[in-house]
Backbone:
């Protein structure tokens, strides 16, 4: 077994352990931190496959942004853990059956004659000066430029919808009017009161 294969199996074992701990950890913060470990390990697997851009995007976007948001929401909310675990054992048989079906399907696919080392040999080494990021950008902005722009438009519509839903008028909503804050005078903020001195 060469070093690259050893590192792949090591990362695979860590990734499986982290993914298992995400769904079995009792503390939501611990589960989110195990998910961070899973993302980092998946990024390492992407690096082994010479997909540097996808590895960096996975770490920067998911670990740097999405998981920070998850941790912020989990720590800010008062989550009742006992209430979350109430129906766990009721759904365990269905979850175990689905997991078993997934394992069987993966074994059938990966154990077939299309996924052996003879059918899928190692890819040829990249030429000197080859950049995975440049190649991906060339394909994305030439052959798939219209689907890329369409996806950007869908994300823009989703962002505008999220902002409009947040800023709608609701009863009891406290908000600040910037015009009133800019036009405020010192007399409206500070009030000087003259009081007689107290003598002992």
Residues:
């Amino acid at each position: 077994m060469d070093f690259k294969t050893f590192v792949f199996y090591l990362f695979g074992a860590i990734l499986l352990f982290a993914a298992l701990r995400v769904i079995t950890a009792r503390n939501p913060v611990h589960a989110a931190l195990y998910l961070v470990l899973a993302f980092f390990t998946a990024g390492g697997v992407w690096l082994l496959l010479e997909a540097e851009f996808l590895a960096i995007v996975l770490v920067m976007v998911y670990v740097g942004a999405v998981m920070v948001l998850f941790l912020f929401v989990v720590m800010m909310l008062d989550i009742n853990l006992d209430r979350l675990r109430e129906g766990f054992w009721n759904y365990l048989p269905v979850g175990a059956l689905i997991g078993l079906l997934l394992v069987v399907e993966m074994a059938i696919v990966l154990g077939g004659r299309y996924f052996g080392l003879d059918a899928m040999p190692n890819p040829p080494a990249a030429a000197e000066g080859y950049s995975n990021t440049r190649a991906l950008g060339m394909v994305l902005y030439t052959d798939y430029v219209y689907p890329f722009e369409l996806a950007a438009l869908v994300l823009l519509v989703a962002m505008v919808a999220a902002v409009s839903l947040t800023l709608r008028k609701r009863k009891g909503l406290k908000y600040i009017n910037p015009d009133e804050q800019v036009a405020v005078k010192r007399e409206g903020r500070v009030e000087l009161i003259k009081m007689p001195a107290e003598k002992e």
Q: What stands out?
A: The mean pLDDT is 83. The chain is about 70% helix and 0% strand. Residues 120 and 192 are 83 Å apart (CA to CA). Residues 52-76 form the longest helix (25 residues).
